[in-house]
Amino acid sequence: MNQSPTAIANEQDAGLLLADLVLPEISDADVKRFAVEIDRQGFSVIPSYVGNEIVERLSALVTKIIERNSGEYAVLTGSTEISGTLLDTIGKTPQLNTLLRRVYAAGTGKTPPAQSLYQVLRCISGQTGLHQAYFFHYDSYVVTALLPILIPKEGRAGDLVMKPNTRRIRSSYLYNLFDKIIVDNKILQNFFKRQAIERRCGFKNVRVVPGNLYLFWGYRSLHANEPCDPKKIRATALFHFGDPHANNGLRKFTGRAKIRATDESAPF
């Protein structure tokens, strides 16, 4: 790629201000309902969380990134790579920050930690995009919010596939690390793939719609995406909140911890 994804994003999103972006206000009753639905069925959805104009701008950004990357898989992760983009603006809105904190509190019964959101933009396309299919994993964060941007309307659309709420929040980072090592095993990955394809043992797929916001317990749910036709693009923005092990000494020592916002730097 001749130009970095971040540079392309900044070029595409020039002129957008935080004050220009308004997201829905969500009632306390709806937040409680979201948590109940996530516990019961594995996910909840807020229809039309962002408008068509935002979806179109994000789609144009994704298309440009894929074109500059020769039609292959691309990803932007973390505050540095997202900085200055439309996704950065969305992630800084008080509405989204407050929403994920309230969902966290409703789902865990605990006060939300003083952490910022961790953002990812995944653009699946080409043969390298196929390699991303059926990679089952647990997130490092309690709450995952998925915002679809570009989803193929026909053929293989790379649907979200999950086995919801298969583990509790671990009391220590060591237990969490053990879970992840076990899940990364190739034999288990193939086993999960077969179960997911056959929709057995609690696996389900979720066909997502651009502009909707999908909420689930990413830390607790085993999940992946199905294959996407290599000549098409599947792009999603992910907003994560609530790392239970952010301050664990072993995690910091092994370099697995990502930078977290402190009370002083967290905007909301």
TrEMBL record:
<protein>
    <submittedName>
        <fullName>Uncharacterized protein</fullName>
    </submittedName>
</protein>
